[in-house]
Design brief:
There is one protein chain. This protein has helices spanning about 1-30, 35-55, 75-85, 90-95, 125-170, 180-190, 215-245; strands at about 60-65, 70, 70-75, 105-110, 115-125, 195, 200-205. It has a four-stranded antiparallel sheet. It has a three-stranded antiparallel sheet with strand order 3-2-6, with no helix packed on it. With about 260 residues, it is α+β, with helices and mostly antiparallel strands. The chain folds into two domains: about 1-55 and about 215-245, no CATH class; about 60-205, no CATH class. About 65% of the residues lie in helices and about 15% in strands.
């Protein structure tokens, strides 16, 4: 019972003190309202102007479909992504096009689950240069895959010759298992061998518009930052003014 009475008496007092403090904060902000207004509007205007006149950044994308050999991709799409992210192709193409390191666009690759698709994306303020770089990268990938297919075909032809030689030996021996071995060799030779070359589904094309964030969004973020900094500055200078108004602590007589 005593605890409830104490709480009922003390709680309104604490609530009243909090309301007084809140009113003091609002009075401080109202006293420096011009600083608050200009501290918000000026950064917002600067953010809008910077977003308007800064160098635009464009996106250039190209997409490949990896070919297959006997139901397997010529090269796993994840392997292509790793090579692109490690800049293996980019370094070769940049050297051939005499592109300086500071001029290189940012290039990343993306794969899609359960597909043989690879998306290669470049972001740069120079879309033409990014377009040439992506075209060179896709050309390198296509060339590598053509070599892999050629090696696979050569291996297949060699295997076919070996099978023909084995069949000739069986035929000369007049083996009783000639027919069985014949069908076995034909099955190995004519087994499922589907070959499709890697192809470019989407040629490197720059985006028609810059990919930068909207001007209104930049202005809003800059304004919010200016508002927060203005409030902190107002409370800081108010604290200093209050300290100067109170004056230094009095010295004792013994000192």
């Amino acid at each position: 019972m005593r605890f409830s009475l104490i709480c009922s008496r003390s709680c309104p007092v604490n609530q009243q003190e909090e309301e007084i403090r809140l009113l003091d904060y609002l009075r401080v902000l109202a006293k420096h309202k011009l600083l608050l207004i200009f501290g918000t509007l000026l950064p917002a205007l600067c953010g809008y102007l910077i977003a308007t006149f800064c160098t635009p950044v464009y996106s250039v994308e190209t997409m490949l479909e990896v070919g297959i050999i006997s139901d397997h991709p010529i090269e796993p799409p994840a392997s292509i992504k790793t090579k692109v992210d490690m800049k293996l192709y980019e370094n070769i193409v940049s050297k051939s096009l005499f592109i300086r390191d500071e001029e290189r666009p940012e290039i990343l690759a993306q794969t899609f689950p359960n597909t043989n698709l690879v998306l290669i994306k470049a972001t740069s303020s120079n879309p033409k240069l990014a377009e040439k770089l992506l075209a060179g990268i896709t050309a390198l990938i296509l060339n590598d895959h053509e070599k892999i297919v050629a090696q696979s075909n050569a291996s297949f032809v060699s295997e076919m010759k070996d099978l023909e030689a084995q069949f000739a030996v069986l035929e000369n021996k007049k083996s009783s298992s000639l027919e069985t071995n014949y069908f076995r060799l034909v099955e190995r030779a004519v087994g499922p061998r589907i070959v499709s070359q890697t192809r470019v589904i989407q040629e490197p094309v720059p985006s028609p518009k810059p990919i930068s964030v909207s001007k209104e969004y930049d202005a809003f973020l800059a304004g919010m930052l200016g508002l927060v900094l203005s409030v902190l500055y107002i409370f800081f200078i108010s604290k200093i003014e209050a300290h100067d108004k109170d004056g230094p602590l009095p010295h004792s007589d013994s000192e």
